[in-house]
Amino acid sequence: MDYPDRDPVLTRRSIRAYRDEPVDDATVERLLRAGMAAPSAGNQQPWQFIVIRDRATLDQIPTWHPYAKMLPSAPVAVLVLGDPAGVKWAGMWPQDCAACVQNMLIEAELLGLGAVWLGVHPLPEREAALRELLGIPEELVPFALVPFGWPRQRKEPADRYDPSRVHYERW
Question: pTM of the prediction?
Answer without folding.
Answer: 0.94
